[in-house]
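Response to reviewer comment R2.3. The reviewers asked that we include at least one raw input/output pair. We reproduce the pair for Terpene synthase metal-binding domain-containing protein here without editing.
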Amino acid sequence: MSMSFGPKIIPRTNKVTLYHKTKLSLLPRPLLQNQTLPRKPTKQDSFYVMATSNDLESTRPLAQFAPTFLGDHQFSVPVNDYEIDAIEHEIESVMKPCVRDMLISFHTCTKDKIRLIHLLISLAISHYFENEIEEILNKAFGELEILTDNEDDLETISIMFEVFRLYGHKMPCDVFKRFKGEHDGKFKESVVGDVRGMLQLYQASYLKTKDEDIMEEARSFTRTHLAVTTTHPHLSKLIQHVLYIPRYRCIEIAVAREYISFYKEEEHHEEKLLKFAKLNFSYCQLHYIKKLKALTKWWKEIDLASKLPYTFRDRIAEYGLGMVGIYLEPRYSLARVICTLISMIMTVVDDTYGCIWWDIEAIEDLPSYVQIIFRNLWEIIQDIEREMSSLGRHCGVKPTIDEIKSLTKEGYLEIAKWARTGHVPSFEEYMEVGVVTAAMDDMTLYIFLGMEDCDEKIMYEWVASKPEFIHAFNVVLRLTNDIATFEEELKRGPGKWQMESTVT
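Raw output as returned:
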């Protein structure tokens, strides 16, 4: 599970069906039409952080957000439940047993199994065989020295490096030294003739860790030569795509779509694998569209756009696509729905914070349009809590509520105060709040909420440990976001633009 391709090391507790047929009543939910709160939230269980009665409105000009450029195209795409069920049946009864036999066959050597795993990853069907793959790789990594000894094929070594690292095994990058000259320490010119090897090494280089200089050299070397390589048309097209956007910066299912077209043109492709990949893509596509239609219908029925006196980022389709980037597997349907719902409502909260300050005691003093936003957020959380309880998963809701409280109190509220008082924070002070508003801690919890086949205890203990990489992600996201929106924020007057004065 990752924003695109990433380490496949989320702890799982049990096998599940292809997708979770949730009873969640969010899509659509008639109660959301009600203009009154189902009950008044208490201070103990509410995540509200409401406005004080003396300072509800901001004097700063509000942002004007354009409508989603995606429109409602998803409603024009036909989705047939019978077709979805038929594809699922063929995947479960025919495709999976066939490929599983290929993976566990005693007649297939370890290197060939690793190559097969890499192909399954590229075709986006590896997620059907996680247990088998982990068993194979755990055993193979214990024999790594034997596997790599005297192996001089660049493509094979690069594939092993990529697969092992994807599944949490840190294969040393020293294995690539054999492809460098003994005297000058540069990659050998003979490598240039191995187009497939260079392509694989280039892609593997994106799995480097800090201070692995040889992988940085490999990326520069291969990129330079791949850019001017002339080869078979279908391979050239794949190279162009990879150089334009590396696969590890893309949504995995979208990369698979391109790879399916490439693999079809390979002279010795395995027809069964190609068929499986096509079936899986169609199944995922239909499933995503079906859920996106339901989400969009729910969002339109809430109709916040007509109830709020300002524009906000209306991006339900974009969030739905983003969740596919986090987890493409149909079995995480519930997780994608939950994450999309919370993310969309919190986006509206984010776009609203410049107008109000929040305080739990003042909920009844708020304008009606603000109460609508928080009522919907509250009802979503309540529905999620009921759904998770029905699945026997109780650990995730409270940490999520606490994180939302932290985001609003320590993030949005602080920036709103700065804007209203004219306070110019130091860069350090700004970044202390900025890493909170980047909200990757929150997003991590949203992501985990609906992953019903993963070990809750392990996941939430990990989140509570405040991993350094999430903090680093927050820093990068905060700065890149501010750079991208700087000019637009500057037009609106005092606000985020004040960061300029802290760094100039």
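The chain has two domains: 30-78+279-503, 108-269. The radius of gyration is 25 Å. Further pairs are available on request from the corresponding author.
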